[in-house]
Design brief:
The chain has three helices and ten strands. It is an alpha+beta fold. Helix 2 crosses helix 3. The longest helix is centred in the last third of the chain and has 16 residues, at 164-179. The termini are far apart.
């Protein structure tokens, strides 16, 4: 079949806490057998918490693989079989200390489809509650910052927000609000 690769064999090469890696043998449409290394991940959720004043709650946190502090939307990992909206509400509460009255899907993204099965579900959260204490996971450290949406878009466009899910979520939020 055109534009199809068939898995002929798959062997787990690494099993970690957050993901596992398989080394697969795949048959191309030409009949040739090739190796494919695949990272398997349950996926995640990203939330754009938008206040009534047009500001976005974002988080600053250290990202070990990049060895830097990043500015991102609140986000978290899906548990196996978990509903993405439920995960989003949990992550919003844990990371920002807020809940919301409405949660609107902004779609899904494949961050690295060349070798990773991760799918990130993006939501816009509105009707935010008053802030309460964060309920961070053990070993999770982050600061919540409130930034006007227009300023957040400027930071994205200036290359100061390198996180892909955050860029996409903020830009989609801006476009959605412009259409409303």
């Amino acid at each position: 079949m055109h534009l199809q690769e068939n898995t002929m064999a798959s062997e787990t090469r690494y099993q970690g806490k957050i993901f596992y890696v398989t080394q697969d043998q795949a048959q191309l449409e030409s009949g040739k057998i090739v190796q494919r290394d695949v990272v398997h991940h349950n996926g995640g959720v990203g939330i754009v918490p938008l206040t009534e004043n047009g500001t976005v709650l974002m988080v600053k946190q250290f990202r070990y693989p990049m060895q830097t502090v990043t500015l991102e939307i609140p986000a978290g990992k899906l548990e196996a079989g978990e509903d993405p909206a439920t995960c989003g509400m949990r992550e919003l509460r844990e990371e920002t200390g807020r809940t919301c009255r409405s949660l609107e899907s902004l779609g899904t993204i494949y961050p690295t489809p060349a070798y990773d099965t991760e799918v990130i579900h993006i939501y816009l959260a509105q009707g935010l509650s008053v802030p309460q204490e964060q309920a961070l996971d053990e070993g999770e450290f982050l600061d919540v910052v409130e930034i006007p949406l227009e300023k957040a878009i400027q930071l994205v466009m200036a290359g100061e927000v390198p996180d892909a899910k955050t860029q996409i979520a903020l830009l989609k939020t801006q476009l959605l609000l412009q259409k409303a």
